[in-house]
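Hey forum,

I'm writing up a methods section and want to include a predicted complex as supplementary material. The small molecule is adenosine-5'-triphosphate. I've pasted the protein sequence and the SMILES. Can someone with a working setup run it? I'll credit the forum in the acknowledgements.
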Amino acid sequence: MLKLFRFMKPYRTAVIFTLVLVFLQTLSDLYLPTLMSDIVDDGVVPGDTGYIWRIGALMLVIAALGGVCAVGASYLSAKSAGAFGRDLRSRVFAHVEQFSLNEFDKIGTASLITRTTNDITQVQMVLTMLMRVMVMAPLMCIGGIIMAMSKDVKLSLVIIAVVPVLAIIILLVVMRSIPLFKSMQTKIDKLNLVLRENLTGIRVIRSFNRTRHEQGRFNAANEDLTQTSIAVNRLMAGLMPVMMLVMNLASIAIIWYGGKRIEAGGIAVGDLIAFIQYAWQIMFALIFASMMFVMVPRASASAARIQEVLDMQPAIQDADAPQPMPARAGSVVFDNVTFYYPGAEVPALSNISFTAEPGKATAIIGGTGSGKSTLIHLIPRFYDASEGAVRIGNEDVRRASQEQLRDSIGLVPQKALLFTGTIAENIRFGKEDATDEEIRHAAAVAQATDFIGSMPEGYDSILAQGGTNVSGGQKQRLSIARALVRRPSIYLFDDSFSALDFKTDAKLRAALKTETADATLIIVAQRVSTVMDADQIIVLEEGKIAGIGTHRELLANSEVYREIVMSQLSEEEIA
Ligand SMILES: Nc1ncnc2c1ncn2[C@@H]1O[C@H](COP(=O)(O)OP(=O)(O)OP(=O)(O)O)[C@@H](O)[C@H]1O
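Reply by user p_vandermeer:
Happy to help. Structure tokens for the complex are below, copy them as they are.
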């Protein structure tokens, strides 16, 4: 957790002021019992009303000053810890933005969300308390012991005997609660994961009548978290009464032994009253410290989870001196590329070699799981090839800057993903400074003009989260328009025509041909009709190239391609 405290640096003035204010507040708390004892011994016993009024007024002033310090310390600690939380969230978010898909796969989206929100809040809360307790508890405890000893050394033995008992109780509770707190954070991750899957997959869950099953899954995760929280809270709830019991027993011992000391003339009545107050102050300081002992391990479990994210270096990084990409990037070359997903024993792609030329369309076809999307993902460096190289022009993609590389690419992903906002904003996502004219043109090429025109607000129609208020085919066309508006030199279509009817598919491909005349086109498709006009077709099977050539060449030479074609086209179409 200490590592994270570097984020407090900008707020050190506020922290120093907080510590000073807490220091002053504690001094005032420590001084009040002594004044009380003076009132009793020098005012009440001799019957000096003037003295009582004077010291009473002084007590009021000191209590008021202590109160002002307490309010100031609360304000400053909450403010600086709040700013710390804000900065840390931004830092984690910015760091996660640089992650490659490897890191997302490793930590998981749900856990990243918990770590950026709940975990940071835990650390922030502890920091707010820590700023106050770390000065107050030791000062109150040591100061209290000194003040109590100044009243009567012998009586102080009672306090000195009780403190280790309290310390042992606290230690036992802390040792039991640390693992529980750790597992609580993991269980919050699990709950978030189930919740996320349920919310995003609500349509599938309903259509398969799996609502009850999913409810059960959620309840199980919820119950699991609840049980751990209950176990932790039981421990915490037990701590307070046990500590109070010890404190009350200590008070009885002090009053009993103090009575004897008064009888023996070793201590005055006022001093005994002050002594009892100091004893309570010492024990309250220990209770505060024990709360910290409980909260700090929980927060440090959270801090470790946050630090893990911050320490994680993106597997894909820019080269030290990135090479500039040519203005219009040329061909895409796969040079004997083999790729393993992290931890996988079998490669998802093996020995892939081909060249996709500018001005030509290269299509990739193959069964599900044959590695088509994986191949596409190596071009914008979502993953890096394990062996061999992917080159654009003559430059290895690993030597270019990721930003420049991706600037030259227009990717239409397999799952069309849109953002909350208007249709125009979603298309403009591809090019920030696109004019209205460019947006309309991209929409026209993507065959989206008709359906956009039929929407009540046209280009200003609002899309719901994830684009749920448009159809699958409409979503695909919008994400195609988003890529087209960039006018990149490389287009990657990852099964992007699958939700289109045959007529729209054909019209779109015809429009694309003129639009992307000098660009390099790589089209992944399942439908033969989509790929048969391509200049080059690559047939993938289990991550290997099973054939490469034009439609006619492959029909003649590739058994795998023939099988795919036979399963989809009629005799006349094949001819
Ligand atoms: N993130 C991942 N981690 C581990 N393995 C993966 C990951 N993504 C895909 N795979 C595996 O890699 C192989 C190729 O997957 P890929 O998504 O490239 O296939 P595809 O040809 O695009 O399939 P489809 O047509 O069904 O989309 C599959 O066996 C798949 O299980």
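Some notes you might quote in the supplement: The mean pLDDT is 87. The chain is about 65% helix and 10% strand.
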